[in-house]
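Narrative summary of target 7.
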Amino acid sequence: MNREDPKQRNRENSADERALHSGFRQYGIYSGIVFQMLATMGLGFWGGKKINDWFEVSSNLLTVGIGFAAMALALYNLITQLNKIQKNEN
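Modeled conformation, tokenized:
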């Protein structure tokens, strides 16, 4: 008769569950970063358009300038968050 140790089986199941939860956790973290970047850039361009309309500038210079500043802020935030994640994994 082949008997398995129930404790060994529970350890294997818990290891599989930890790996599964770790994958979902990483997915959540990275997708949150993406949505944060999209929101930052979207608000930057939207705010730039509103400011451009407020000052009644004929060109879209303020829209583009503030939008690119928001993109730079989003990329800076991305790099700092990825560095934090990398430090936590090590």
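The chain has two helices and no strands.
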